Amino acid sequence: MALGITLDELAGRCVVLELQWALDGDDDSLTWVLDLYAIVDAPGPTHSAFRAQRLDRFPATTLEEREHAHASGRRLADNLGVPFEAPDVTDHGGTGGSRWLERAAAGGLYGYPIRWTARWWTDVADRREASGRDTMYATSGKAAARQVAREVAARTVGRALYVLAEGDDTHESHHEHETYPADAISIAQVRALATSPSSLVKVLDLATPFDLMIVFSEAFYLTYEVLVSLATWYVDRDDAALDAALGPKLADTRYAWDRPRRLREAFAAGKSIAALLRDERTHDRVRAFVDLRDLFDLSFSDAKDFISSFEDARNDARLDAMLRLR
User: Fold this and answer.
1) Can you tell me the distance from the alpha carbon of 113 to that of 165, in angstroms, rounded to the nearest whole number?
2) Which residue among 46, 130, 219, 275 has the highest number of C-beta atoms inside a 10 angstrom radius?
3) What is the pLDDT of residues 91-141, one digit of tens each?
4) What is the spatial distance between Cα 16 and Cα 270, in angstroms, rounded to a whole number?
5) What are phi and psi of 163, to 5 degrees?
6) How many angstroms separate the CA atoms of 214 and 208, rounded?
7) Nearest-CA neighbor of 46 among 57, 56, 37?
8) CA 9 to chain centre
9) Nearest to residue 213, comparing CAs of 252, 240, 249, 259?
10) How far is Cα 138 from Cα 107, in angstroms, rounded to an integer?
11) In the predicted structure, residue 83 carries a pLDDT above the cut 50
12) Model confidence over 275-296: pLDDT tens digits?
């Protein structure tokens, strides 16, 4: 076995051997493989009585390879005296995970040790952090981590709260995103007025420093950590210091946050949007994807088609027609 686990270590603990589908390789060259797992008598991430332990991996592209994987697994199961489960040998791939564990009845409560970390911001833009350890009784490690994350979030008062709860082989996160302040001007207006950070904060005139940080983050694609100088300005009103701290940051991200304006103006002038994205050497395709959907009300599939096709000028007419025919 590839991972060096002996028969003696499995004997008495293994209740079933199972082949499970998985993908191997990188995004450009993924291939189907069959992983051989021992389901052992021990608390795991998906069941409080059993856990899956990988023993080996087999190529599974051809029928011959899959037959070899099945024969190897069955031979080991016979040696251990346990049942053997596997997908049909004629299948060419499938859903990962353990079918045996999915069918198993829920186990009893087990006390899973869970570590947690919480991070959040206050109204005055102080970043806070806390951590701890809990024992959570649950029917799976995932359920235990999820419950701890929820309980920590419920007892933590803060903004943009993020909680990570981790067990030995599982983790769950809880993230509370901040909503755009209701009394703030629109993001498009914010961007149009972005002559300098100090002039913009005066126009915004928001109630708390963190509200300012939310607006700047949404409009200019900056993290809260980069925007803490807004809290300093809120106290000392030092325009020069704020412009020195944030002016270059807004300039660095302008190519991205100013794109919606450029797209709107180019579209109104009858110019090719596909050619514009190509000429600008657009690399942040996720944001460009979002811009296309927001501005032109494209479906997910149409926006995906646009982003994957705009680099080839032969597609310009088709892609621009997609926008103008909506």
Assistant:
1) 10
2) 219
3) 999 999 999 999 999 999 999 999 999 999 999 999 999 999 999 999 999
4) 65
5) -125, 130
6) 10
7) 37
8) 37
9) 249
10) 9
11) yes
12) 999 998 888 899 999 999 999 9
Q: How many helices (H) and strands (E) does the chain have?
A: 14, 8
Question: Measuring CA to CA, which residue among 267, 198, 209, 204 is closest to residue 234?
Answer: 209
Structure tokens at 122: 């206050």
In the block, residue with structure tokens 């993020």: 162
Amino acid in position 192:
A
- CA dist 294 and 301 (Å) reads 14
Q: What is the CB-side half-sphere exposure of residue 273 using CA atoms within 13 A?
A: 26
Do 96 and 21 form a contact (C-beta atoms < 8 A)? yes
Q: In what order do the strands lie in the sheet with 110-121?
A: 127-138, 110-121, 159-166, 171-175
Report the alpha-carbon distance of residue 70 to residue 2 in Å, rounded. 16
